[in-house]
Specification:
The chain is of the alpha/beta class. The protein has helices at about 10-20, 60-70, 85-90, 95-115, 120-125, 155-175, 200-205, 225-240, 255-270, 300-305, 315-325, 330-335, 340-350; strands spanning about 1-5, 25-30, 50-55, 75-80, 125-130, 180-185, 185-190, 210-215, 220-225, 245-250, 255, 280-285.
Length: about 350
């Protein structure tokens, strides 16, 4: 059995669904169900006896101790995190509480559990912490891509909180011997992503004839990885990665934000014709401290673990758009109430660039 934290969110739910579809071990799925945690992401395994969902917080030490004691997982995959830069600018406190304090409490309970395991379970146990490339800071256009040895230089409250959690993982391995693994991924896209992130937001707005808000000049560059490729990489790292190591996961695709939006508009024009989607693009005031470029050097995971992304950006984007077109009830369910207020505060109220 494995324990997955944050398994009702975007990446976590895709991991759980893929893991069980491939016949993996039973899953205990712990999620706090904040705005981005959605039980609707898990309907495909609602009746699967191999999946047990528990609503709760990684910072709840008593609950964590109970789950570890009762289910005795052989591994833990930690997706639990606040993960949106714009929200961290709007309110940093939740990011510190979940990403730093929550990770600390998780580590303390896992350390206690692991130290009391008998061999060979103790030697086989792993804790995999899923992190982000944003901990490395911002690159110039000609700079080499982020490698696992790149110095940390986080520039937002979100990335700073994730950097702190990464450092805690490293310290618990070095000091206590806890067999940790850390993965730092680039921008994910794919099914079930909450429509505050670039790609699902643009799809959502475009289908409704609303403006497509692009920060600044749209020239900020990101590496993009299809979420199911990312989840496959996590499984490879969990099963074959070396304890104490970090592995960067990317899609080998660098695109400006404007290139991504143009590709989406053109794909929607093909799949849902009848509107000039590019005409909806509206440049808006940039967010504070917007990093100019991220890029991932995936040499380590390719050479050590023989992992490579399967999807090209065009194939992954097509699958993504097709999923959103086919799952509008899911979209409608997650974009009511507080979501509308957030969009109004973060995008609608911005003045034109």
């Amino acid at each position: 059995m494995i324990l997955v934290t944050g398994g009702a969110g975007f990446i976590g739910s895709n991991f759980v669904l893929g893991w069980l579809a491939r016949g993996g071990d039973p899953v205990i799925n712990l999620d706090k169900l904040t705005y981005a945690g959605n039980p609707g992401n898990l309907v495909d395994v609602a009746d699967d006896p191999r999946h047990v969902f528990v609503r709760g917080d990684i910072a709840d030490r008593a609950l964590m101790a109970q789950l570890l004691r009762e289910h005795r997982p052989r591994a833990i995959v930690n997706f639990a995190a606040e993960s949106h830069v714009d929200r961290s600018i709007d309110g940093p406190g939740e990011f510190i509480q979940t990403n730093v304090v929550g990770t600390f409490h998780l580590l303390e309970e896992v350390r206690r559990y692991w130290q009391n395991l008998a061999e060979p379970e103790r030697g086989h146990f792993r804790l995999l912490h899923v992190s982000t490339d944003e901990v490395y800071g911002s690159l110039g256009l000609g700079d080499p891509a982020f490698s696992e040895s790149t110095a940390y230089a986080p520039n937002s409250p979100y990335s700073a909180s994730k950097a702190a959690s990464d450092h805690l993982l490293r310290a618990y391995h070095h000091t206590f011997g806890l067999p940790t693994l850390t993965s730092n991924c680039s921008n994910n896209y794919g099914p079930r992503q909450f429509p505050e992130k670039l790609i699902p937001l643009m799809i959502h707005n475009a289908l409704r004839g609303k403006n497509l808000p692009v920060y600044g000049d749209g020239a900020n560059v990101r590496d993009w990885v299809y979420v199911k490729d990312h989840c496959d990489a996590i499984e490879v790292v969990l099963n074959r990665g070396r304890a104490g190591q970090t592995y960067n996961i990317g899609g080998n695709v660098e695109k400006t934000n404007l290139e991504v939006v143009h590709a989406l508009c053109d794909l929607l024009a093909e799949l849902r014709p009848g509107r000039d989607y590019r005409s909806l693009i509206a440049f808006v005031k940039d967010r504070p401290g917007h990093d100019r470029r991220y890029a991932i050097d995936g040499t380590k995971i390719a050479t050590e673990l023989d992992w490579h992304p399967r999807e090209s950006f065009s194939s992954g984007l097509r699958k993504t758009v097709e999923w959103y077109l086919a799952n509008q009830p899911w979209v409608n369910n997650v974009t009511s109430g507080d979501y509308q207020q957030w969009v109004a505060r973060n995008y609608t109220a911005r003045t034109a660039a």
